[in-house]
Design a protein that fits this description.
The structure is a single chain. The chain is an alpha/beta fold. Among the domains are: about 170 residues, D-Amino Acid Oxidase, Chain A, domain 2 (2-Layer Sandwich); about 55 residues, no CATH class. Helices cover about 40% and strands about 25% of the residues. The chain is built from 17 helices and 17 strands. Strands 3, 4, 5, 6, 11, 12, 13, 14 and 15 form a nine-stranded mixed sheet that branches. Strand 13 and strand 14 form a beta hairpin. Helix 2 runs parallel beside helix 4, helix 10 runs antiparallel to helix 12 and helix 15 packs antiparallel against helix 16. The longest helix is centred in the last third of the chain and has 22 residues. This is Electron transfer flavoprotein-quinone oxidoreductase.
Length: about 475
């Protein structure tokens, strides 16, 4: 279902060019022939999880091969995101001195929106502009290409334009892969790492994970709009080099529970919106309709006025939460990042990188002992369980079900919040007591008091 929706949407946008460009990487692009040598580890996918795993494995002396179906790292991942500075700094100390981040995020806002109104909350602090910082906005393609450079400098081999079609097993033990480039090639390894992203077809084909349902997968679409840096700073009230992220709630997702946001970059901003694939099918609209809906909003129109669209993109994000995580360790094989549904709200990239790091630690331990069994590789899941990753995912385990139980929540309560703010601001020729009664009746006509209390109680039970 997700692939169909993406194909339909891209065909509607085929007149626009994606602006992501490759950079030169020190990689091996030779064809290995029919049978390649045996590696310590083969990693499938050059995303943040796979490349982080490759870097730390290579740094610890493992002979590592990364196979990526795109022509360069990040080729399938245009647009930008934010990364958590402390999470990334602990893996790559002072990374901001080496990697070109777009903006330091010093400002976080949330907008509760209706078709003509915005009720906003905003936090801005100079403390967030000081090292070691809090968050950065980054271009995904640049980040992945930087990680690919780090991995190759550490000694990993990275091959592009290789599509892995099959994981090879011998008596239940993963032993290698079959990949297609100009021809079909077999690559052998003691450890296989699946880092092929959301909706991992290899995990599904190998019987290692169940087919992802449309309810547990969201389709996010984004548009990047170029604007001069000075214009961005003026419109968002930012100092040079500083950035903001705005969470958009309610109106942008057209009555469905989902998320939307605005991110600021050096000389562009991005509009992002996503809802469950099942909801797109139910609503019967093109994903691009949500972007157009956002762009027509009065407050958004002011922010993007005069800008030029330079990118469209889309991606599938697993939203099933803790209970949708498959078994991550098998004989000779580990699953990392989005392929393992290790996604928690806005922490997708950082969780992916840390899962790759823990997989690398397990691989290193396995090589030392020459034991590639499930028991030995389970160090990976043990490290995950002890980390913030699994603890946070477990704490938020009920969120996915809550969103399904309260499909109206974001839209309805945004409209109620907006109506409250409007009525408080509105001046009437009536006594204040009469106004309060009028406002109360208006709000309870939108949602009865007992239902509000019930929804609040359900939410409090889930949020830990």
């Amino acid at each position: 279902m997700g692939e169909y929706m993406l194909k339909h949407w891209y065909e509607a946008k085929k007149t626009h060019k994606i602006s992501c460009k490759p950079i030169t990487l020190k990689v091996d692009n030779h064809d290995t022939g029919a049978v390649a040598k045996k590696y310590d580890a083969i990693i499938i996918g050059a995303g943040p999880a796979g490349l982080t795993a490759a870097y730390f494995m290579a740094r610890d002396g493992l002979d590592v091969l990364v196979l990526e179906r795109g022509p360069y790292a990040g080729a399938k991942n245009c647009g930008g995101v934010s990364i958590m500075a402390e999470h990334t700094h602990k893996l790559f100390p002072n990374f901001w001195e080496e990697f070109r981040c777009e903006r330091i995020i010093t400002d976080q806002s949330y907008w509760w929106m209706t078709e003509d109104s915005v009720l906003s909350t905003r936090f801005q602090s100079a403390r967030l502009a000081a090292a070691p910082y809090n968050r950065f906005s980054v271009k995904r393609g640049n980040l992945y290409q930087w990680l690919a450079d780090k991995a190759t400098e550490a000694g990993a081999h990275v091959l592009f334009n290789y599509t892995v079609e099959e994981v090879l097993f011998n008596d239940g033990q993963a032993t290698g892969v079959v990949a297609v480039n100009t021809g079909s090639s077999k690559f052998l390894a003691n450890i296989i790492v699946l880092a092929d992203g959301a909706n991992s077809l290899l995990a599904e084909r190998s019987g290692l994970a169940a087919r992802v349902t449309p309810e547990n997968m969201s389709l996010y679409v984004k548009e990047t709009i170029a604007l001069p840096a000075s214009v961005i700073e003026e419109r968002f009230n930012l100092l040079p080099g500083q950035g903001t992220i705005i969470g958009l709630i309610g109106y942008p997702t057209a009555g469905f529970n989902g998320t939307a946001s605005i991110h600021t970059f050096r000389d562009s901003i991005s509009l992002n919106v996503g809802i469950a694939v099942a909801d797109f099918a139910q609503a019967g609209f093109n994903p691009n309709d949500l972007l157009e809906r956002i762009k027509k909003h009065p407050q958004i129109k002011q922010l993007i006025a005069g800008g030029q669209t330079i990118e469209y993109g889309g991606s599938l994000i697993p939203e099933g939460g803790y209970y949708a995580i498959p078994k991550l360790v098998h004989p000779g094989l580990m699953i990392v990042g989005d392929a393992g549904s290790l996604v928690n709200g806005t922490h997708g990239i950082n969780l992916a990188m840390w899962s790759g790091f823990y997989a690398a630690k397990a691989a290193h331990s396995a090589k030392i002992s020459r034991d590639y069994s499930t028991r030995k590789l389970s160090l990976y899941t043990e490290l995950l369980k002890e980390s913030f990753i699994m603890q946070d995912l477990k704490a938020n385990a009920g969120v996915a079900k809550l969103m399904r139980d309260l499909p109206y929540a974001f839209d309805l309560y945004s409209r109620m919040a907006s109506e409250t703010a409007y009525q408080v601001s509105r001046v009437y020729t009536m006594p204040k007591r009469a106004k309060r009664i009028m406002v109360f009746k208006k709000l309870t006509s939108m949602q009865p008091v007992l239902k509000i209390l019930s929804d609040a109680w359900k939410t409090l039970k889930v949020i830990r």
